[in-house]
């Protein structure tokens, strides 16, 4: 996917703007009466004003430079749907030795009562923290005494040891913003690459000189004082089938390039891939783990003794690692325990498992590499220069003949060569210990394929009784296997399925291929569908669209500025053959249909017929691309609209005299 970004010079002046915070608690009648039609008449809440500032200061206790970030926001709540904007979550970084901290937190709700604003101050006891992961801690709070029409306000100060990414700023969020302003002070000895992502443009930017803003070891340092301003920012509306919102929201990002040391030397943080390759190759938690062929030296002959070729060897090793090490649900590109310990304890993070896979494949004299990547929910990576913090995951790659296979052994239900959908995100970087790293496209190797075949009869009581057989492959089979195995047994899964489908009764079932992840998953059900109420046996309507009917358009925006990312191409086929209990005359039926997306992007075919008391329905829905660009969005929307409209039609049958 094309990365969206406009790189900005720290010293480029667009127009004149003056950074200014606003007074806390100074709520006005104009705030209370703000007409949302000015920006978005459908908004449940609107950010009236938002101000942030970030600077680097020296900590008095440690003497180390740290980032100080202050955030102040005022929000108008219009209805109960907007109450969720009063649930605040502030993510904070932490590791074994350092962590971000919050202080000076204030939060208030203002309600207009009897001609006056009444402030409800949040109790400090309402603030709590949650450890989300090894590296993330969340500060959470909810503002009190919410009413429709309330104005809420909060501010806080964050101290961070993380200078590399400075502090990003999101101009765009899930609700519109009238005024969003960010002021940064960047010392002259720090050089940052600055990028503005998203489709909204800055209203104003100003760069000034701030004299002696920082003092280190008795030396005064000047700063660039930069103001970024964006007004009347529309809400960012998420739809299904997209990667991380951070790829598309309008926001400003900072990445440290280098630091000019006081002794005249320079420390570079923006390195070349050649530098990164050397560092990763010698890193004890990545490259050193890839080299641990010794761990598998005695095991490999046993694992591969019955394998006739390299592909069979790779599959045997892949299946062994999947079974041997259970994923602890932690991501990471670096091994936490080391592959030897993970094998012994039979537990590890993503890197423990997949670096073990690389080492084991290499021990079998197969051409194996590691691929570092960013998951779909983590955003795309910067390809202009290496930013290692962009990557949060690693998988294995094995090259056999002219074919390369990407492998992730964290998921026991994944077939060989199919990455979990979370990893199918733009490009990854292949790390090879013997040659330079390179980019590789991360694409699904299989389609999302489902076929439904129903053979049965339509009874005089308006019921369809017959056999429904479902075949799934690719991600469809993977997701269905996961769903089934979440239950204690296949019987329990079918029982719950029967409960969820009020118009369907499942009499018998047979599920095969549940453990054979390389093959199709086959579900066979003896079923009874209720398609009419049976009140009129002489003439009645019934809809043939009772299997995966499309009743809601997934694309409802007037336009979409980011791609539709399905993850994988898909193919769904529905075949229904019904015999009729009596002789009927066909009076109406759904129109046969054949429509396609531009550039052979997909198609929908429908053909229905009745002959000799037999009804046949054939339906195909195909999406040939994994990704559709924004300019194709309206075609997708219209495509679904036509299908939905046609699926409202029904068969009308009249009993023959």
From TrEMBL:
Q: What is the lineage of its organism?
A: Bacteria, Pseudomonadati, Bacteroidota, Sphingobacteriia, Sphingobacteriales
Top-level division of the source organism's lineage: Bacteria
Per its UniProt record, what Pfam families does this chain match? DUF3857, Transglut_core
Residues of the signal peptide: 1-19
For this entry, the protein name equals Transglutaminase-like superfamily protein
Which keywords, in A-to-Z order, does the entry hold? Signal
User: What residues does the DUF3857 domain cover?
Assistant: 69-195
- Residue span, Transglutaminase-like domain: 301-387
Tell me which SUPFAM superfamilies the record gives.
Cysteine proteinases
Question: InterPro entries from the xrefs?
Answer: DUF3857 (IPR024618), Papain-like_cys_pep_sf (IPR038765), Transglutaminase-like (IPR002931)
Q: Which Gene3D superfamilies match?
A: 2.60.120.1130, 2.60.40.3140, 3.10.620.30
